[in-house]
Prior knowledge:
Blueprint: E1 2-3, E2 7-10, E3 13-16, E4 23-26, H1 31-42, E5 47-50, E6 72-75
Antiparallel strand pairs: 1-4, 2-3, 4-6, 5-6
The protein binds zinc ion.
Amino acid sequence: MDRKLESVKIEGKDVALLSEFHVRFACMEHFDEELDDYVNDFEAAPDTHQAELLEDESLDKRCRACGAPAKIALLKEKGL
Ligand SMILES: [Zn+2]
């Protein structure tokens, strides 16, 4: 739901992350809310991906707000 990671596999590609920005998940219903929270908490707009494209088994892909299976991952990639 809310993790700090150095990198994550997205569609088979290792993507380096800015680890001070968390990896969060949201369902469609809470996406706008989570986007606002992300910007408030980290003072930067996140990069977003479909949650199913993140291949890290250890990730808890549930919406941070309601715990439902998430559709969108919010994270911050290095160098973008
Ligand atoms: Zn939700």
